[in-house]
Amino acid sequence: MARRSSISERHIGPRASKRGVTRAEPAHEGGPGGPRSKKETGSGGSLYRLLAWLSPAYPIGAFSYSHGVETAVEEGLIRNRDSLVAWLRSVLENGTGRVDGALFASAWRAAAAGDWPAFDAIAERAAAWRGTSEMALESRQQGGSFLSITRTAWPHPALDAAHQRLAGELSLPVAVALAAAAHGVPLDAALNGYLHAFVANLISAAVRAVPLGQSDGQRTLAALEDTVTETAMAAIAVESLDEVGTATPLLDWCSLRHETQYTRLFRS
User: Fold this and answer.
1) In angstroms, rounded to a whole number, what is the distance separating the alpha carbons of residues 36 and 23?
2) Shortest CA distance to 193 belongs to which of 80, 56, 17, 35?
3) Taking a C-beta distance cutoff of 8 angstroms, is the pair 159, 179 a contact?
4) d(CA 170, CA 182)
């Protein structure tokens, strides 16, 4: 029987245990850590920071992860541009994009409000909300690297405090959300940028693994523009993380298969 590349099937993520959350004192105007200068809060400064953090050149090791794409190629589930678009659209709408988008939005709001107990609870859930060991490594390693380099190049007291409280371990969406809130990058721009960078990295992996040409890679990215926007809007609209789950069991299967795949270019 021919394999299908659809990865949609209902699977609800684990519910985090409830615990008391004490609200911290509200942050000063402009986000956590006090008021900022016009240079820091201006749209140009925010855009500059966001472009730097989400650039492929930012040293977090994103190029070494394929998020299961390598196995999907190996198994014939991704064969060309059309199957890649279908696969990534499902990952965004029903899988990691949906979950990480909701975690990002919740973490950004908690950080912007200076509600650090709530932020830490979200970070704890994000660390546990991974279907396989490779997915956990992918998010944890990149998040830790992001926090480390951002504390060095774009320092802020909120980043240092989170590093101390959480021993330097944050999942990537939570780490980027923290930096965006701390440096005054608006939520909608930050989340759209994050999801764009996420899917662009997977396209880059597919370009190398299928292989696809650079033109097909860019056409894939263009085809997913509306999906990225809609995924971000849906994530921002989430009222409770308990409502969020994934529906991509084939993605989890590919990740599990990748752990024992004989020839590998990527770490996930």
Assistant:
1) 22
2) 56
3) yes
4) 15
Cis, peptide link before residue 117, omega less than 30° from 0: no
Distances (CA, A) of 165 to 121, 124, 140, 179: 12, 11, 16, 15
Amino acid at residue number 210: V
The answer to whether 157 touches 131, Cβ cutoff 8 Å, is: no
Q: Which residue has the tokens 């993605």?
A: 251
End-to-end CA distance of the chain, in Å?
27
Rg (CA), the chain: 18
The values of phi and psi at residue 230, to 5°, are -65, -35
Q: Of the candidates 84, 52, 102, which has an alpha carbon nearest to the alpha carbon of residue 216?
A: 84
Q: Which two tokens stand for residue 20?
A: 């008391």
Q: Yes or no: say if 144 and 122 are a contact pair by the CB < 8 Å rule.
A: no
Helices 133-153, 172-182: axis angle to 10 degrees equals 20
pLDDT in tens, the chain (268 residues): 344 343 443 333 333 333 333 333 333 334 444 434 333 344 678 999 999 999 999 987 766 766 777 788 777 888 999 999 998 999 899 988 899 999 999 999 999 999 999 999 999 999 888 766 777 777 788 888 999 999 999 999 999 999 999 998 899 999 999 999 999 999 999 999 999 999 998 898 888 878 888 999 999 999 999 999 999 999 999 999 998 877 777 677 666 665 665 565 655 3
CB atoms within 10 A of CB 211: 10
pTM listed for this prediction: 0.81
